[in-house]
Write a structure and sequence with these properties.
Blueprint lengths: L3 E10 L2 E11 L4 E5 L6 H8 L7 E6 L2 E2 L5 H6 L2 E3 L12 H8 L8 H6 L2 H21 L14 H14 L4 E5 L7 H16 L3 E5 L3 H7 L2 E6 L2 E6 L1 H5 L2 H9 L7
Helix pairs in contact: 3-5, 3-6, 5-6
Bound molecules: adenosine-5'-triphosphate and magnesium ion.
Magnesium ion (MG) binds next to helix 1.
Length: 257
């Protein structure tokens, strides 16, 4: 059974059809990429899947359950966690605190716990702190744990966002252009992190413009253009697909792989 099923999903904004009758499945522990020119509807698709807003029509199923139109905190609680196209960190908090906040959905926490600090609360606090350190190590930020997040170079802020998303222990992780604005070296570090997350058993959907990254790590690719799915297949199939080549050559971008 698919972990995620997107079935005939449409999203209209007034007269604009941002997603039109899109369907695809994502299997357990798959690494799927979603590509397409600017404005193709990729982020809209993530917004629909993650409950940021409901689709106009169609169904989203996660782990066999209908999650269509459920609010994002509920969807996240079920194990479906996303990152955003633009960096969204708590800039005044430290790097480690930003990751600790990510574990919110898997802890009991609460104001009562914080006020009265029972044993379970202190144990939980300690495990949250240790978990955050491990995740920072995992993405290579262990040396910067106590810096304010906004003191990190941009490329490292993107890694921090990935670490924060992992703190929520996702079964399905949605990454919206995590390599945007990264240099070659930073992109390689990110590719390595994504590959290790995937090997650890997490299912991933990756929106990305960097074609060499997509072709290197994706197992399957869904291509959107003007709100429609125009192709789906392996990296080799997508690279040779006439509609994909036309979509990219007709726009401002060229598939460089
Ligand atoms: N909240 C919104 N209200 C109105 N229109 C929107 C909204 N969100 C997206 N759109 C429009 O829907 C279309 C698809 O946008 P979307 O952000 O999904 O594209 P994208 O594929 O993620 O593009 P990019 O590669 O530039 O990030 C665009 O025309 C966009 O202007
Ligand atoms: Mg986008």
């Amino acid at each position: 059974m698919a972990l995620l099923s997107v079935d005939n999903v449409t999203k209209r904004f007034g007269g604009l059809v941002a997603n039109q009758s899109i369907s695809f499945d994502v299997g357990d522990n798959e690494l799927l990429a979603v590509i397409g020119p600017n404005g193709a509807g990729k982020t809209t698709l993530f917004n629909l899947i993650s409950g940021f807003f409901p689709p106009t029509s169609g169904t989203v199923r996660f782990d066999g359950r209908d999650i269509t139109g459920q609010p994002s905190h509920k969807v996240a609680a079920a194990g479906l966690v996303r990152t955003y196209q633009l960096v969204q960190l708590f800039s005044q908090l430290t790097v480690a605190e930003n990751v600790e906040i990510g574990s919110h959905r898997v802890t009991r926490g609460g104001v009562g716990g914080a006020l009265f600090r029972p044993d379970w609360f202190r144990r939980e606090e300690r495990s949250v702190r240790e978990g955050a350190r491990e995740l920072l190590h995992f993405v290579g930020l262990e040396g910067q744990a106590d810096l304010p997040a906004d003191k990190l170079p941009y490329g490292r802020q993107r890694l921090l966002e990935v670490a924060r998303a992992l703190a929520a222990k996702p079964r399905l992780l949605l990454l919206d252009e995590p390599a945007a604005g990264l240099n070659t070296q930073e992109t390689e570090a990110l590719a390595d992190v994504i590959t290790r997350i995937h090997r650890g058993g997490t299912t991933i959907i990756l929106i990305e413009h960097d074609m060499s990254l997509v072709m290197k790590i994706a197992q399957r690719i869904v291509v959107l253009d003007f709100g429609k799915k125009i192709a789906e297949g392996t990296p080799a199939e997508i690279r040779a697909h006439p509609d994909v080549i036309a979509a990219y050559l007709g726009g401002t971008e060229v598939v460089d792989a």
